[in-house]
Design goal:
Number of helices of chain A: 7
CATH class of chain B: Mainly Alpha
Largest sheet of chain B: none
Number of strands of chain B: 0
CATH superfamily of chain B: ABC transporter involved in vitamin B12 uptake, BtuC
Oligomer: heterodimer
Structural class of chain B: mainly alpha
């Protein structure tokens, strides 16, 4: 449990107002192959500034691959990807993007690094390698530590923390970059339900108050349909939709999960306490 | 030195140039080994240090045989070895422990062949195998200082990037940190550190000076910064102890250095368990 309310601190985002017209991500005709198998097929996707996007889909469907493509981490692909209007081949403003991986919290617990040290490493990759951190770097680190409720444990070794606390450290490490685009690959493994709820609250705050565009790979379909503004379903093919009241979640998800997929979901579920909510998923993965 | 000396002769010893050279050289070696060694431990590449050190034996033998400054030939052979080992790892030719084994054997075999061609061992080769801190001359000290400045300068400038890459290379790369360049740079530092340590601890025991101070520091340090400081303190204490006992009682410095650092390790490990 976080044990504190998320402080509303200006994270230094260039704009806290949503610029919904501005395209942050634009993918056209993306095809990705690995060892002769097609992982992603004819992907067309547009994400605007301020979108809060849930990426769902069965395991092995290509969700992580899609994130890797956006991070310029795929060698063999065809099609075009534009980030903030610039072709990814020419894109150099990587400090505008932050990424938290699926297994970020699975590291060697004996590694000698404190919370403050690790979070400060998020400031790397801006400017020339080897530059000395300035006051503004350390101010940013302190600001984010406070925002994430980590100030009290800043001098602790990261390996000593609980799963939920470690998760917050890695989110903090991403946030010190003042990212305009935050990519999260379901970093909730080993984190209990209450901390997951706090995690989702935090993301909502970042999105609504700071205007951060967020892409979150999630298996928690209820969270996606309750909290987010857009859903992307990835299973080799990619389908996306704005989360409007007239969207039928079940028929939308069947495009990715298959015809036998059942998802019992009512919009009023979103009013309920998340940590106690039960979502019934029958059929499931094809 | 004769063994009538006692610890009270230390002020007098400090006046001798050979002792000053040994002291300065020893401290540079201790600092370099403490920092490079800590990164090696955290990267789980401790045996890279051992492998490259043994490989450099071939370089020393070639230098002695051809009448070239042996630390220069050792440096060339070590640099080639670390670059080849990291290339083999990167290209998936072999895991680093296997490629280290290959180069270790290759370097040592080269030394063996060269020695047999030269007609056998000589006392100078022995000093490279086990170090001889009190024989550091002006040219050795200059070599050690230049290499030491490169090693300490690189770590001083890029320690944050190195820490990030050591903690998580993949996410560092995605953050725009030049991981490959830093890893290659660090491999070269390992080669440089080993070569500059040869005169002090010798080829056989250099890995111990690389690894043991860092291991002791890991018992105590909470942050990376404090761990690095502890590593420097343990490394420097061990080298100074080796130098003193060598100068005063004529005990082999390398042996004392390793005994001191191991003693410190056992002490802090025990202290940590009892705490």
């Amino acid at each position: 449990m976080m044990g504190h309310e998320l402080a509303e601190i200006n994270l230094g985002q260039q704009s806290v107002h949503k610029e919904t017209s501005k395209e942050v991500i634009s993918i056209e005709n993306l095809n990705v192959f690995r060892n002769g198998t097609q992982i992603l097929k004819d992907v067309d996707l547009r994400i605007n500034s301020g979108d809060y996007v849930g990426i769902v889909g069965p395991n092995g469907g290509g969700k992580t691959t899609l994130l890797m493509a956006l991070l310029g981490n795929l060698a063999r692909k065809s099609g075009t990807i534009k980030l903030f209007g610039t072709d990814i081949q020419k894109f150099t403003d990587w400090h505008r993007i932050a990424y938290v991986s699926q297994d970020a919290i699975n590291f060697d617990n004996s590694f000698p690094v404190t919370v403050r040290e690790l979070v400060s490493l998020g400031r790397l990759g801006r400017g020339r390698p080897g530059r000395r951190f300035k006051k503004e770097d350390w101010d940013k680190v302190e600001e984010v530590l406070e925002f994430m409720g980590l100030t009290g444990m800043a001098r602790k070794r990261v390996g000593q923390l609980s799963g939920g606390q470690k998760q917050r450290v890695f989110i903090a490490k991403a946030l010190v970059r003042s990212p305009e685009l935050l990519l999260l690959d379901e970093p909730v493994a080993g984190v209990d339900a209450q901390n997951q709820e706090q995690f989702h609250k935090l993301l909502s705050v970042l999105n609504s108050q700071k205007g951060t565009t967020i892409l979150l790979v999630s298996h928690d379909l209820a969270v996606v349909f309750c909290r987010m503004s857009k859903v992307v379903c990835v299973n080799r093919d990619v389908h996306s939709s704005e989360l409007t009241p007239d969207l039928d979640p079940e028929s939308f998800l069947r495009q990715g999960y298959g015809e036998h997929f059942h998802f019992v979901f009512h919009k009023h579920d979103c009013e309920a306490d998340f940590s106690k909510q039960e979502v019934t998923i029958n059929g499931g993965l094809k | 030195m004769s063994h009538e000396l006692t610890i009270w002769d230390l002020p007098r010893l400090l006046g001798y140039q050979f002792f000053q050279f040994a002291l300065i050289g020893g401290v540079i070696v201790a600092l370099s080994c403490a920092l490079v060694g800590l990164f090696l431990i955290l990267r789980k590449e401790a045996m890279l240090g051992d492998g490259v050190a043994h490989t450099s034996f071939g370089g020393i033998a070639i230098g002695l045989y051809l009448g070239i400054y042996p630390l220069l030939t050792a440096l060339i052979v070590s640099v080639v070895a670390v670059l080849a080992i990291s290339y083999m790892k990167r290209k998936g030719v072999a895991h680093s422990d296997s490629s280290i084994a290959v180069f270790l054997a290759l370097g040592f075999s080269t030394g063996l062949i060269v020695i047999s061609l030269a007609g056998g061992f000589n006392i100078e080769l022995f000093s490279y195998l086990f170090g001889d801190i009190l024989t550091i001359d002006a040219f050795d000290l200059m070599t050690v200082s230049v290499l030491g400045m490169v090693v300490l300068g690189f770590i001083g400038i890029f320690h944050k990037e190195l820490l990030s890459v050591t903690f998580d290379a993949e996410s560092s790369r995605l953050m725009g940190i030049p991981v490959r360049g830093l890893e290659t740079g660090f491999s070269l530092l390992v080669a440089l550190t080993i070569v500059l340590s040869i005169k002090v601890v010798g080829i056989i025991l250099v890995v111990a000076l690389l690894v043991i101070p860092g291991l002791s520091a890991l018992q105590l340090g909470r942050s990376f910064r404090s761990t690095a400081m502890f590593s420097i303190v343990f490394g420097t204490t061990s080298v100074l102890m080796g130098l003193l006992l060598n100068a005063i009682y004529n005990v082999a410095a390398a042996g004392v250095i390793i005994f001191t650092s191991t003693g410190l390790f056992l002490f802090v490990a025990l202290y940590k368990r009892l705490e």
